Amino acid sequence: MGGGFGGLNTASAIKQNDLNNHIEVLVIEKNPYYFVCPVSNTLLSGHSDFKKENFLFNYRKVQLSYGYEVLHAEVNSIDKTEQKVFTNKEAISMKASSNMLVVLNYLM
Fold this sequence. Notes:
Elements: H1 5-16, E1 24-28, E2 33-35, H2 40-44, E3 56-58, H3 60-66, E4 69-71, E5 75-79, E6 84-87, E7 91-93, E8 100-103
């Protein structure tokens, strides 16, 4: 899942239901902003009241509100045997925590 509308809702729901704070959620997303527009058909219609800039948000507010981390990177590969995710910025070990969920920018 990506760090867009669906991915962020999934990450937020997991953290909201983790009452004992045992699950570490890391969203890996290459873009610095996400786009939220439930009325996208209106935006696509070109109506002058709807500007794309009004629907762009950075990740900091949702990170603070829900308690998950966001890594701005691209996933290069996943090693299932070694339980590692390799990005263009760092390698992330899944072995470090048995309660870790990584929400990826795209499925591999």
